[in-house]
Design goal:
424 residues, binds uridine-diphosphate-N-acetylglucosamine, UDP-n-acetylglucosamine1-carboxyvinyl-transferase, Chain, alpha/beta, 14 helices, four-stranded mixed sheet, 2 domains
Length: 424
């Protein structure tokens, strides 16, 4: 099993290219099931998660090829299979999103429930409620969902989400793109990944209006087309490197980062005393000698502070002057990084969904264990700022969502290497 070894205390100076967003790419890939024409995605991140979904899509009959550069070509001329087994869904929650496109195109699909997840229960009731509103009949049995469309296919409907779920909004949008008539989603999620999907579905021939607001209207098409679409820049990767630069010190340009997609984070970082500014072609982040000030945050659906950057922000706050309170409102059980950060000398007390971080003068490197994707990268951030060597074990979590993490950081002066442990 691989591990990452970081020698702390080196500033990050230079440029880091931001990849396409994992959370967008996975949904765009699933949407390729909606058409029998070829869909080309550019700015695709190369990640364990995208490879994994490609494997599932291939099982369903899609040809998936990685093209030159960051391109992926997806072509589901025919659907060979409308069944997604437990083995292929349990490992990655986004796989569940094949249900809607399959039932929209083929009239019926059987997909395993995604099961629990390390950061909380993560149910899918809202996804199913949405598909029902489009006329699908849903049956749950032995851990599987079977969805059946009425004769003649799904029909546009109205869905009022009790929580602005990203996954459910995307799932309903995909199914509605091939439904007859209009679908209206109220209290829709507003994340940039939703707008990205809306743009692609519109390019494919559906009419999607209001993405980015709380009400989305989708006019379904009888047939959708292929095309070429560039995946939006990853705002979570952007946040992660921004917080790494803040923790390690230095002055680095995040190339391709979208300033407007992280406004609440930038505000919190400025409050903490970090320089952040939009520049031509990206975002500049710098901290040279100034102290970090304790700053409170609370995770919220977009445009609020992203839950996916909470662990990384906590890593920065471990070194702040004063105390910060970090409240997690999206997922229960998302503070698993706190005890690992404590191994480096951080002072963190967790009470329910609130963590109180008392800043310390310095962290000291230690062996730590990655527990989930974003938690593991928070340990890398802390390691960059710590004295001595930090060894992050179980880095397969990192590979799920970060493309070439070590080389992107090493190119800016970090001392970071991957070690592959032999089997014995
Ligand atoms: C969440 C994040 C998203 C992030 C993604 C990947 C939010 C609001 N969403 O999206 O920004 O990119 O993780 O890490 O920050 N829920 C239900 N029933 C459902 C679906 C969700 O009750 O059918 C609840 C969950 O229990 C949880 C919340 O909604 O409390 C999560 O929201 P959701 O946006 O659906 O999660 P993801 O799509 O995984």
């Amino acid at each position: 099993m691989d591990r990452i070894v970081v020698e702390g205390g080196h500033r990050l100076n230079g440029r880091i290219a931001i990849s396409g967003a994992k959370n967008s790419a996975l949904k765009l890939m699933a949407a390729a099931l909606l058409t029998d024409e070829k869909l080309v995605l550019t700015q695709m991140p190369r990640l364990a998660d995208t490879r994994f979904l490609a494997h599932l899509l291939a099982r369903l009959g899609m040809s998936v090829e990685e093209g030159p550069g960051a391109q992926m070509q997806l072509h589901a001329a025919e659907i060979a299979e409308t069944y997604a087994p437990y083995d292929l869904v349990r490992k990655m929650r986004a796989s569940f999103n094949v249900l809607g496109p399959l039932v929209a195109r083929e009239g019926r699909a059987k997909v395993s429930l995604p099961g629990g997840c390390a950061i909380g229960a993560r149910p899918v009731d809202l996804h199913l409620k949405g598909l029902e509103a489009l006329g699908a009949q849903i049956e749950l049995s032995e851990g599987y969902v079977t969805a059946t469309a009425p004769k003649g296919g799904l029909i546009g409907g109205e869905v009022d989400l009790p929580f602005a779920s990203v996954g459910a909004t995307e799932h309903i949008m995909m199914a509605a793109a091939l439904a007859r008539g209009e679908t209206v989603i109220d209290n829709a999620a507003r994340e940039p990944e939703i707008a990205d999907l809306a743009d692609m579905l519109t390019e494919m021939g559906a009419l999607v209006e209001g993405a980015g607001s709380s009400t989305i209207r989708i006019q379904g098409a009888e047939r959708l087309h292929g095309g070429t679409h560039a995946v939006v820049a990853d705002r979570i990767e952007t946040a992660t490197y921004a917080l790494a630069i803040a923790a390690a010190g230095g002055d680095t340009m995040l190339e391709g980062a979208r300033w407007e997609h992280n406004k609440v984070l930038w505000r919190a970082m400025m409050d903490a005393g970090v320089t952040v500014e939009p520049v031509e072609g990206g975002v500049r982040v710098a901290r040279n000698g100034s102290h970090i000030k304790g700053t409170d945050i609370e995770t919220q659906p977009y445009p609020g502070f992203p839950t996916d950057a909470q662990a990384q922000f906590m890593a920065l706050m471990t070194l702040a002057e004063g105390t910060s309170v970090i409240r997690e409102t999206i997922f229960e059980n998302r503070f698993m990084h706190a005890p690992e950060l404590a191994r480096l000398g951080a002072d963190i007390t967790v009470h329910g969904n609130e963590a109180v971080v008392r800043g310390v003068d310095r962290l000291k490197g230690a062996p730590v264990m990655a527990t989930d994707l974003r938690a593991s990268v928070s340990l890398v951030i802390a390691g960059l700022a710590a004295e001595g060597e930090t060894v992050v074990n179980r880095v397969y979590h990192l590979d799920r969502g970060f493309e070439r993490l070590e080389s992107k950081l090493a190119n800016c002066g970090a001392k970071i290497v991957r070690e592959t442990e032999s089997a014995d």
